[in-house]
Amino acid sequence: METQSRRTFLATASALTLGITTSFAMEKEKSPLVHHVFFWLKNPSSKEDLAKLLEGLRTLKKIETIKMLHIGVPASTEKRDVVDNSYSASELMFFDDLAGQKTYQDHPIHLKFIENCSHLWEKVIVYDAISA
Nearest to residue 59, comparing CAs of 49, 69, 67, 50? Predict the structure, then answer.
């Protein structure tokens, strides 16, 4: 009976280890991607231009591969050397993986946003990150 229990234990432990390892490998292949974009308007004091940019950004939420979208403007937080609040607006998006982000990049809604709004900004910086 004791031998059977050890065998059962080892078989169960091996199966669990294999399952965890396989799951971890699959997570690495399908790692969530964070896409953070900062926009600087050509006319940073124009409330109308900011409103148009924000309206354009909101159209992006219809793209099916975007799992979460946050659109924002600089917060009135404490001024520190490491804080850059010189931008006009930002978008923060979460995708399931690189393929979802690629779908977004090529999506007609995204391309239309660029066509309709690119005349408003003078500078755009993108930060893309995956899980480490």
Answer: 69
